[in-house]
Amino acid sequence: MNNVLELRQLWQIIRKHFFSIVVMAIIGAAAGYGIAKFVIAPTYSASTSMLVNRSADDTSTATANLSDQQADVQLINTYKNLIISSNVLGAVSKELKNPAPIVVQEAQDAEYKTLADGTQRLVTPAKKRITKPSTKTKYNLSVEELKSMISISNQTNSQVFSINVKAKNPKLAADVANEVADAFKDKIGGFMKINNVSIIDAAKANKQPVAPNVKLFTLAGLVVLGGLTFLYMLVKELSDTTIKSPDEISESFGMTNLGIIGHVKPIKHFSMSPKVEIAKPENSKTPRSRLSRLDRD
Description:
Largest sheet: 4 strands, antiparallel
Number of helices: 10
Structural class: alpha+beta
Number of strands: 8
Order of helices and strands: HHEHHHEEEEHEEHEHHH
Number of domains: 3
Organism: Leuconostoc suionicum
CATH topology of the largest domain: Alpha-Beta Plaits
Pfam families: Wzz (PF02706)
Oligomer: single chain
CATH class of the largest domain: Alpha Beta
Transmembrane segments: 18-40, 216-235
Subcellular location: Cell membrane
Function: Required for CpsD phosphorylation. Involved in the regulation of capsular polysaccharide biosynthesis. May be part of a complex that directs the coordinated polymerization and export to the cell surface of the capsular polysaccharide.
Helix content: 40-55%
Shape: elongated
Radius of gyration: 45 Å
């Protein structure tokens, strides 16, 4: 019975302060939305996926069997450590700071044809290397900053792994991810006997931020402020020991209610004694001194 009464009392408190709880919950949701949308800087993500296979010299047969594939999967943890190494990220930092020029034409040596008499005739003249300035955006990022932006993930029993980059700018995230993939592809041959590195998907700028989660912040603000308001009202009601109705006296002390005496507040400027007023004669021009004399006579 006590549990029923406690639940009923709880429900009464909710009904009594329902409007206040709803209003505060809406205010909390609006505050959470505003913080996520206008206060916290958005974070963008870009990723590129890669596939690495060992060279044919590392296998006993031309066709890799299941054990070789499993060995390649185990090596992904090694690739993760290599990607975030100072050797790879140092090259990435330099390339982002000073992008290499775009090669329009590779340098070529002149080609000659030897004639029957031993003389040589020029067939193709030599060509100089022609480049043009890079159109890539320059970024000044240290190795430590790059490490904090990069994470590597892969699915179970898969040789494909992804290089994920988070940044405050979508283009920056895509540029860093692609540059890390290119640097790793160029340097992996010097670390291990691997000559088969493939970039499956290049990173693209995604203008949809991954953080903060606006819906989650809105829901959190609604729940937190609404819950705190409910707890405040609950504590306030439970700590109030005043008697609010005759029924509470009967339930608490087991007394019988014989009647109710109403309380009448005193009325200001109210008196029970009669007030006598003397009417003044209308249009009386008799002087005050004469009226006093007539009264004495």
